[in-house]
Amino acid sequence: xxxxxxxxxxxxxxxxxxxxxxxxxxxxxxxxxxxxxxxxxxxxxxxxxxxxxxxxxxxxxxxxxxxxxxxxxxxxxxxxxxxxxxxxxxxxxxxxxxxxxxxxxxxxxxxxxxxxxxxxxxxxxxxxxxxxxxxxxxxxxxxxxxxxxxxxxxxxxx
Length: 158
Fold this sequence. Notes:
single chain; mainly beta; two-stranded antiparallel sheet; 1 helix; 8 strands; 34% strand; elongated
């Protein structure tokens, strides 16, 4: 199924079947576990067009010879009105004298659709005639992919 048959709803989410994280439905690769979610060429192009809008790298260290300390890493997201829309505890731990750990945060922004490549002036334009779909059998309902849903007791058909 191509992307035209399944429009992308901006912000719509789903669960990654690999790591169970909530991810954007439009992604072709999970940002958490990096497993492939879709093998759709347009989705892959959209993800390649992602812009790294924000990135922070840091390190926390504990001086040698001091008592251990504990840390918590929390990420909070707020909308334009300042309302908190998400708060996630990412990790906790302890550092003994001389130990350190690093933290990296990145925010990627993806286009909701790819920009259409400009058509050069004078280039031939091809039009396609799309036939009307056949009416579904009585009592059935046709889905956009062509599947006809039938009442209970009857099997769906294509």
